[in-house]
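The records we work with from here on pair a chain with its fold. Taken together, the tokens spell out the fold as the letters spell out the chain. The record below shows the convention in full.
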Amino acid sequence: MPPEPFSPPLSVVPVTMGIMIGMG
């Protein structure tokens, strides 16, 4: 089967965005 596209869990997206915004 073809590999699935990278899709982070919805619970991780806000955390990652928060870290990027906080570090930026």
